[in-house]
């Protein structure tokens, strides 16, 4: 049996080695705990057994463990400016067999590593077995759910940030990807509004109807859009199109 309380206790000990007075690291800590809960909720809704639900929650807890090193070393959470935080998380868990501090058995290591390694990639790698793919999909969904939650309130705490987005526009390439019902490639983003649109576009990479139900129930996309009052007419028109398409996709 997976001891989640033991795992959470070790996670608190590990994160306590960092500057937890820093609001960004506190945010990352809290994000990890929420993703853990969302993983459990999705796994339960999918009809997984108790052990599998606990495994999903453990994976959620550990998925961003490299973020604390990332911010401490680079003062950013941008992989392209630092390191791939999914790959680094796996490395942290492998170093000195650190994984055993979270779970006694190595029975699930291949699943945990695959899910964490794939959580931040544009697409899941080819060649995973059925269980690796399932838990990778659960983690990716749970992570996106909480990012949508964060965009609805946690991100952009300064009014100046909101005003900047209100006066921004959607770049052509990003709008094209959303029109084609594709998740936005982060490398294609050009404007501050593109970042918001990319988050909304996560809905096109959601794996389970159960996850969409969580998003709809909590009105995460509505909460994001309600934060902004776009100033340019063309931006308002394009965002209305995006909103309509996103809400249709949630219902599918």
Task: Give an account of the 3D structure.
The chain has 252 residues and is mainly alpha-helical. The protein folds into two domains: 151 residues, Orthogonal Bundle (Hypothetical protein af1432); 95 residues, no CATH class. It contains 13 helices and no strands. Helix 1 runs parallel beside helix 3 and helix 5 packs antiparallel against helix 6. The chain is globular, with a radius of gyration of 18 Å. 38% of the residues are buried. The model has no long low-confidence stretch (mean pLDDT 95).
Considering the protein shown, what is the CATH homologous superfamily of the largest domain?
Hypothetical protein af1432
Kindly identify the CATH topology of the largest domain: Hypothetical protein af1432
How many structural domains can be distinguished in the coordinates? 2
Question: Oligomer, anyone?
Answer: single chain
Give the overall shape, derived from the CA principal axes.
globular
Helix/strand order, N-terminal first = HHHHHHHHHHHHH
Mean pLDDT: 95
Count the DSSP helices: 13
Strand element count:
0
Secondary-structure arrangement, i.e. CATH architecture of the largest domain: Orthogonal Bundle
Low-confidence stretches: none
How is the topology of this model organized?
Layout (H helix, E strand, L loop, with lengths): L3 H12 L7 H23 L4 H13 L4 H8 L10 H10 L14 H10 L11 H22 L7 H8 L5 H8 L12 H9 L8 H10 L1 H6 L7 H19 L1
Helix pairs in contact: 1-3, 2-3, 2-7, 5-6, 6-7
Please provide a brief summary of the model.
The chain is 63% helix and 0% strand. It contains 13 helices and no strands.
